[in-house]
Amino acid sequence: MPRIHFRLNGVETDIDADPDSSLLAALRGPLGMTGPHFGCGSGECGACKVIVGDHAVTACDTPLWSVRDKNVTTLEGLGSAEMPHPLQRAFIAEQALQCGYCVSGILMSAAALLMQNAHPSGADVKAALDRNLCRCGSHNRMVRAVLRAAVEMAAP
Ligand code: FES
Ligand code: FES
Fold first, then answer.
1. 46 Cβ below 6 A of ligand 1
2. Sign of CA dihedral 119, 122, 124, 129
């Protein structure tokens, strides 16, 4: 089995796996990252999103070979219970989740947006979250939470 190397949440990582298998399978399986969720499995729902470089991608249809030597960030690399990311604090403050199944992917899409645009408009946030499905209808609170985090992160 070929060895694939990449940086996972800042840690140099090697995995022996089929290069054509999905990034999500590697993350949730041998690499033990359960932050990215399995939803549709076909790039439609966004529950599995991770950040590669500074772009949010759907890990379920991203082949492992395509992240060779790249930086991959999952929810586990965003923040922790002890040191939450501003987005995570803002989602709690705005009560921007219900079942929470979609939220890992939403946070990663939002984090990638804020890496590229520190001062997003509401329209920018909606566009960034457009490919993330939430069946609980928390969308408006999520947009408010992302804008709240952006303000906090841009504060001097
Ligand atoms: S599980 Fe990857 S987009 Fe739905
Ligand atoms: S909070 Fe339940 S699917 Fe989004």
1. yes
2. positive
